[in-house]
Amino acid sequence: MDIGCKLCFDYECQNDGWCANANDSYACECPAGYAEDYCNVNIDECQQNECMNGATCVDMIANYTCSCPHGWTGWLCEQDINECDSDPCQNNGSCRNLEGMFECVCTDEFVGRQCETYKVVTCENFPCRNGSTCVDVKSQ
């Protein structure tokens, strides 16, 4: 029976680490994502992340994920979302998909990010409410 000197004890190992060779090494064997002698350090996988397009890296255990900014998707935020699929332009404006965003090209009558506002407000296109009388003012 070999009594010997035991250098490592499983109870000292953290984060489900274990003593692989208790008689020869005081260091614990660590599961993926942890490091140091007692497996007490969570490895920051975000230090070597490949997130793209301004994404924020979120560290996990033995992995990471990318939190994508608006307009991007995919595990690394590498895929541009086609914002024109949702038909965001109003009043017959046409949509142009750009990287991470969209742009509306408005007809001559409308302006605004989504062509939502009349360029020239008249009694015809924006009548008064609650029984008021509308009078168009002509510019001089």
From TrEMBL:
Q: Which domain of life is it from?
A: Eukaryota
Give all residue intervals belonging to the EGF-like domain: 6-40, 42-78, 80-116
Keywords (alphabetical) are: Disulfide bond, EGF-like domain, Repeat
Disulfide links within the chain: 30-39, 68-77, 106-115
PANTHER family cross-referenced by the UniProt entry: CYTOCHROME C OXIDASE POLYPEPTIDE VIC-2, SUSHI, VON WILLEBRAND FACTOR TYPE A, EGF AND PENTRAXIN DOMAIN-CONTAINING PROTEIN 1-LIKE
**This protein's name:** EGF-like domain-containing protein
